Structures are given as C-alpha cells and as structure tokens.
Amino acid sequence: MNRVNKGVMPTVGAYVMWGVLPIYWKFLQEIPSGQILAHRIVWSFLFILLVLKWTKQWTEFNYALRHRATRNAFMLNGFIVSANWFVYIWAVNHGYIIEASLGYYINPLVSMVLGVLVFRESLNRVQWLAVTVAAIGVLVLTFGYGSFPWIAFILASTFGFYGMVKKRRPLASTVSLGIETLAVVPVAIIFLGWQTSQGGLTMTTEPVIWVALVGTGVMTALPLLLFGYGAQHIPFTLVGFLQFIAPTLSLAIGVILYNEPFTGYHVFAFTCIWIAIFFFSWNSWIQTRKRRQLV
C-alpha cells in the first residue's frame, strides 16, 4: 500500500464521523446543549489523557504546557472551539442542520479571507472569484430567506480562527486538543456542579444515554486522531477536497432524515457555494502542479 492510499481511508473516516455527528447529537437532544457541551469537554479531556499516555506524547505535552506563548495560544483556542461545539450542538438539536452544514462549506473561504487579513497572504483572481460567488450565495439566502445565517457565520468564523491559531503554532493534534480541553475542563466541571446545585442537571435513568455522553469524548478525539494520521500521508490539496465530505453528509441528513426545509433560496445559495468550492479546489490543484514542476 503506497503512502497516499495509506492516508486516504483514515482521512475519509474522520470526515465521515464528523458528517454523521448530527445523528449523535439528535440522540442526546433530551439533554440541554450546554450540558452536552460540558460532558463533551470533560470526557474528551479524559480520553485525550489516555491517548497521550498510549502514544507516549507526555513529554511533548508537558513541553508545550511549559512554553508560555504556546500554552496561552492553545488555551485560547480551547474557548474558541468550545464556542464552535456549543453552536453546532445547539443548531442540530433545534433544527438547523442545513445552516450548520453551510457554515462548514464556507469555512475554507473564510480561512482564505483570514489569510489575507491576518497573514498578509494574497489571493489570485480565481480565489477572489470563489469568495465572491460564495458571498453572493450567502447574500441571496439572507435577503430571500429573511434572516442572516448567523449559525453558519459563527461556525465558519470560529473554526477559521481556530485554524489560524494552529497555523501560527503547529502541534500534534492530540497535544493541542489536550491543552485546549485542559483550559475549559474546569469551566465545564463548575457548570455541571452549578447545574446540579440548582436542580437543573438532567439526570437520565437510561444507561444508553450515559454511555452516549461518555462517548462524546471518543466522538471528539477519534476523528482528530484519524485526520492527524491521514493528513500526513496525502497531499494537502486532497485533504482540502475531502473536507467537503462532512458538510455534504450533514446536509443530506438534515434534508432526508430530519426533513428540514430546503427552499429555492437554499438551492441557489448552496449552488453558489458548490461553484465556489469547484474554483477553490481547481485552483489548489493547479497551484500544486506548478510547484511540483518547479522542483
């Protein structure tokens, strides 16, 4: 098995897991979104500790914690990704899976804009065309449907900033997630304790619900581990193309499984996004070919 084939299946597996997450959150919809998030943080942290021990990355984890700038950056990232998780869980359990999938479709385009504004990168004409077409789709959806797609915007922007921090200070995914969850796990524990004292903590007698709550840690960390392994063995352009598996699955789940409304405005907006994605992927492929020819 060559290097590329070795990396494709883990990467696809990661995106498929992310894509079917709406089904998992729907299963837990009797639990308030804030409590699901708190459980996800706590169990993710515990699971990551086990993974760090199993992969023998304690030294790297401790070194990153001792490096003040790195520690602070990824602790900030912990709050950013927690906001992303909360909005996504809330959106799924309140009937906004389609809008959530829109957020992850436009995320690469948001990242491109952040690259220009923050890293002073330049976009070529094709990239600007992709951003413009996507913006037209979002604007038509906003004015035609009657409201700005805030959920999509928040998901795309928080994940864009989350990726921006990772670009500034690259770390192994397990190490970075360990620091990120370490930052927010005290808040999650305090929140669960406060909910208990106020009588607001949902206590279920169904063992399967408790197993699913504990499983949020695995559902958070496992796709990251698969992605971290797979992305090391395949071209980054292929990673960029495969990332659209997740929002496509989520979109299909929202429309087919949960019968969320998919209006003509949605059709137009998503068509614009898909056209933008085509330009985005095609441009990335062309740029990669040019770089290879120069080597």
From TrEMBL:
Domain EamA: 7-142
Annotated membrane topology: Multi-pass membrane protein
Keyword GTP-binding: no
Keywords: Cell membrane, Membrane, Transmembrane, Transmembrane helix, Transport
Spans through the membrane: 7-25, 31-52, 73-90, 102-119, 126-142, 148-165, 177-196, 208-229, 236-258, 264-282
Localization per record: Cell membrane
Pfam families: EamA (PF00892)
InterPro entries per the UniProt record, alphabetical: EamA_dom (IPR000620), EmrE-like (IPR037185), RarD (IPR004626)
Family: Belongs to the EamA transporter family.
Protein name, as recorded: EamA family transporter RarD
Gene: rarD
